[in-house]
Amino acid sequence: MRDDQAGKVARNASVIDFSMIEDAVGYRLRRAQLSVFQDFNEAFSAKGLRPTDFAVLMLLTRNQGAKQSEVAEALGIQRANFVAIVDGLENKGFVARRKSEVDRRVQSLHITEQGLAYLDDLMPIWQEHEERLLAKLGGKAARDQLIGLLKRLYD
Amino acid sequence: MRDDQAGKVARNASVIDFSMIEDAVGYRLRRAQLSVFQDFNEAFSAKGLRPTDFAVLMLLTRNQGAKQSEVAEALGIQRANFVAIVDGLENKGFVARRKSEVDRRVQSLHITEQGLAYLDDLMPIWQEHEERLLAKLGGKAARDQLIGLLKRLYD
DNA sequence: TATTGTTATACTCTATAACTATA
DNA sequence: TATAGTTATAGAGTATAACAATA
After folding, report:
1. Is B150 within 8 Å of A32 (Cβ atoms)?
2. What are the transmembrane regions (chains A, B) (predicted)?
3. What is the rounded CA–CA span in Å between residue A115 and residue A92?
4. Sign (positive/negative) of CA torsion A64, A68, A72, A77?
């Protein structure tokens, strides 16, 4: 078997033939998402904020008092796993839980004044992140096109 | 504070105002990728195959004898974490490690005859998966457009 | 000294079951 | 009985450090 040799000859150090999977939708989605999340994490690492934390704060600005399980489902997170996320945001003082008076089983979530101020502080970082993506994509038209296509895969 | 009440009134049971993040590229990428991977996993669960395993087998068909660390890097997986993946494929008899005669540090990876037969068996499932995505996207033109945009985010 | 594969380890994310308090 | 939040736990995926064999 001379596969080793044949491979060595046909391929130089780090060139792999990708033709079989480079156009697989799932593969491309994974790589793109990893790249975008890495950019996000590098931008927000100093703030100790993860994408999900940011999404929760953003959501609450327009959904004050939303049910905890409602927010979790909206973000595709199981309610059991969402508890620790809210715990973290609550410990930092950015989110407050209040027992609903209508149904004492539910916790309604509120972004605090401190949380809003924090978001204000974060918005420029967020904008810069989105603008880096915009530059890579080649403009708003391309971005809107991408969003539209992604929505067809999940909405 | 009547946030609970105000929220309750403005929003019915499970309707959350998403306007703040619905057009965030990273959020849309994550949801789309989760949806696509879920479809993949449901299709392949009976075969006990994960997306990464499939990608490795696909890659090896055109890169017989490739270095283990080369394949890992091509797929964006760290070499330390790639060991267990190759172990699994080797235990199933789909991949073989052979010590390179040129550099005895490197393991060159080969897909076996059994691995090729397995892939043949899997291809219809793969095709159906890609066609379900194609249907969601609305045709090949849309798919190619999406792939092109994703490549701009990472290539 | 540097690199490849490997082991060990830790941390995050995700999935499931079961408990509690309320309804 | 059913539901919201919670706890505990197990499984993936990922990141880092260190080691042996080899270059």
Report:
1. yes
2. none
3. 9
4. positive
AA identity, residue B27? Y
Residues 74-113 of A with CB under 8 A from B: 74, 76, 98, 100-102, 108, 110
**Domain residue ranges in chain A:** 49-152
Both structure tokens of A125: 């970082």
Residue B141 touches chain A, beta carbons under 8 Å: no
> Burial level of A146, CB count in 10 A (0-12/13-18/19+)?
buried
- The CA distance from B101 to B108, in Å, is 10
Q: pLDDT averaged over chain A? A: 91
- d(CA A26, CA B109) in angstroms, rounded, equals 24
- The verdict on a CB contact (< 8 Å) between A28 and B151 is yes
Please write the tens of the pLDDT for every residue from B10-46. 233 468 999 989 989 999 999 999 999 999 999 998 8
Residue A142 has pLDDT above 90, yes or no: yes
pTM listed for this prediction:
0.91
Q: How far apart are CA A31 and CA B149, in angstroms?
A: 12
Say whether pLDDT at A12 is over 80.
no
The whole-number pLDDT of residue A155 equals 86
What is the band of A68 on the pLDDT scale with cuts at 50, 70, 90?
very high
Assigned CATH topology for domain A49-152:
Arc Repressor Mutant, subunit A (1.10.10)
The arithmetic mean of pLDDT across residues A96-104, rounded, is: 97
Residue count of chain A: 155
Percent of chain A with pLDDT over 90: 86
Q: How far apart are CA B12 and CA B14, in angstroms?
A: 6
How confident is the model at residue B14, as a pLDDT?
A: 62
Burial class (CB in 10 A: 0-12, 13-18, 19+), B65: buried
CB spacing of B153 vs A61 below 8 angstroms: no
SS3 call for B126? helix
Question: Residue A109: which nucleotide is closest by CA–C1'?
Answer: D5
